[in-house]
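ok so i was messing around last nite and threw this chain in just to see what happens. nothing serious, just curious
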Amino acid sequence: QVQLVESGGGLVQPGGSLRLSCAASGLIGSIVAMGWYRQAPGKELELVASFTSGGTTNYADSVKGRFTISRDNAKAVYLQMNSLNPEDTAVYYCHARTGTWHNYWGQGTQVTVSS
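result:
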């Protein structure tokens, strides 16, 4: 089992920045990929940024150049979000996948971009 706990969400004005953190615990040695997803009201869950099992990074086109994903091995993953705009408003979820293709999710953290 893997447990994921997010933190760092909140209310920010357009153009502002936030940093999300996700701490992993449990069988972290089994994690091969980690990342962030988000779900806006009335929209489907979408990938924001992730580390693949090969160590490369993926970003949604809408956040390239503004968001940066980083990690502390399999212990934690972070999402630095700059130049936020109202379209970034969503619940952000931390995700981890193990080598046996088990998927784990955090509880979600709300990010609201509004003036």
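not much to say yet. The chain has a mean pLDDT of 95.
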